[in-house]
Amino acid sequence: MSEQQTGMIAAVSRDDKHRFSKPVVAGIRLVAGHGVEGDSHAGATTQHRYLIRTDPARANLTQVHLLRSELLTELAAEGFDVSPGQLGENITTTGIDLLALPLGTRLHLGAEAVVEVTGMRDPCSMIDKFQSGLKGALKHTDAAGRIVRKAGIMGIVLVSGEVAPGDDLRVELPAGEQLPLGVV
């Protein structure tokens, strides 16, 4: 993977309430150490409904959810109707294989914002409540017995900035050993 890999922002979404889908908006502001301004998942400590019950002081490694738009095309070919924001992502991208990025990758979004990749999203049962069978399309076991997750990646905001559709996305790979993404 090239350190100069670039893509683009296809859509941005946020919601101030804990709902499954997030409405698409014209732009979002990423705030360092906090997440997406005005989003229910923003905060220095976890805001995930399940994790907040089990460990409310846990650092929030899921401040920003990113999903590649190419997945939406793949899902449509399987008979699902999913558009940007509907899987709860804050940023829908195009042109970058997000799931192939190593842990610690820095994503430069727009003119200023930087997000550090912390891991993969693990699809939960809420996905099947949104559309029956969708969880199986986003998480399954391959022929080699490995679990394949496609529901996007999570990150933390390192540098604040505005992000909008059409903005550039640039990948900065971490120095040294490149570790695969785990689940956060």
Spatial order of strands in the largest sheet: 1-6-5-11-8-7-13
Alpha-beta content class: alpha+beta
Number of strands: 13
How would you state the average pLDDT, rounded?
Answer: 95
The CATH fourth-level homologous superfamily: PK beta-barrel domain-like
Distance between termini? Answer: 23 Å
Biggest sheet overview: 7 strands, mixed, barrel
CATH architecture: Beta Barrel
Instruction: Kindly report the CATH topology.
Output: M1 Pyruvate Kinase, Domain 3
Oligomeric nature of the chains: single chain
Helix share, percent: 10-25%
Outline:
With 184 residues, the chain is α+β, with helices and mostly antiparallel strands.
Keywords:
alpha+beta, M1 Pyruvate Kinase, Domain 3, 4 helices, 32% strand
Question: What does this 3D model show about the protein?
Answer:
By secondary structure, this protein is of the alpha+beta class. The chain contains four helices and 13 strands. It has helices spanning 49-54, 69-77, 126-130, 134-138, and strands spanning 6-13, 24-25, 28-31, 35-36, 64-68, 91-94, 106-109, 113-120, 139-141, 147-149, 153-159, 161-163, 168-172. The protein has one domain: Beta Barrel (M1 Pyruvate Kinase, Domain 3). Helices cover 14% and strands 32% of the residues. Residues 23-172 form the MOSC domain. InterPro entries: MoCF_Sase_C, MOSC_domain, Pyrv_Knase-like_insert_dom_sf.
